[in-house]
Specification:
single chain; Nuclear Transport Factor 2, Chain: A; five-stranded antiparallel β-sheet; 5 strands; Tgt2/MlaC_sf; Phospholipid-binding protein MlaC; MlaC/ttg2D
Length: 207
């Protein structure tokens, strides 16, 4: 093999490895997968108990324990979060916590009686990980048998993790809420005035 041929061959091999590297999916995150599986294992006995009140109480407790409500609450406001007054924040965040719990309860009712198991994860960034799960051993004909339930994990600089969003089949709760909230704010004059309208809308939905 001539020197030129060797150089060409080496360049070709290098190009192939570079192409492979760029097309490989992001690595799975074992710590985030374990974090979510622990959540699911903790939830399973109560979500499969058949007791509706126990299930709803369990969802509330799990949201309190695992979801970073303040971070999510700011995210769903979009750009309006920077315009919120201290007085509005004092009213909005407790309301949002109750509102988000209501959304999670309504969503989790779809999976009452089911056990979920983690199936994999993708690192979007060091602080942003998507963990996927599915129903373990679904019954034949179960309408959610093929559903993929997603958990978006936020990891801070110290390595602490929390749930930032959840969803199913690429539909995310916080993103859906952001679209709804920002629309209400915009349709009511935006800024402080729009946030006041959002707060009143949330109160009405919670009553």
């Amino acid at each position: 093999m001539t020197a030129l041929t060797r150089r060409s061959f080496t360049a070709c091999v290098a190009a192939c490895f570079m192409a492979i590297g760029f097309t490989q999916p992001a690595a799975a995150d074992q710590a985030a997968e374990t974090y979510v599986q622990n959540l699911l294992d903790e939830a399973a006995p109560r979500l499969t108990s058949g007791d509706q009140e126990a299930m709803l109480a369990a969802v509330d407790e799990l949201v309190d324990k695992y979801v970073d409500m303040r971070r999510v609450g700011r995210f769903v406001l979009g750009r309006a979060a920077r315009q919120m007054t201290d007085e509005q924040a004092a009213e909005y965040f407790p309301l949002f916590k109750d509102y988000a719990k209501m959304v999670y309860r309504n969503t989790m009712e779809n999976y009452a009686g089911q056990r979920l198991t983690v199936t994999g994860s993708v690192d979007r960034a060091a602080y942003d990980i998507i963990v996927n799960s599915k129903i373990a051993n679904p019954e034949p004909g179960d309408q959610f048998a093929d559903s993929v339930i997603h958990w978006r994990i936020y990891r801070d600089k110290e390595g602490n993790m929390s749930i930032f969003d959840a969803g199913a089949n690429e539909i995310w709760l916080a993103i859906e809420q952001q679209e709804q909230f920002t629309s209400i704010i915009a349709n009511n004059g935006g800024g402080v005035k729009g946030i006041d309208a959002l707060i009143e809308d949330m109160k009405a939905r919670l009553n």
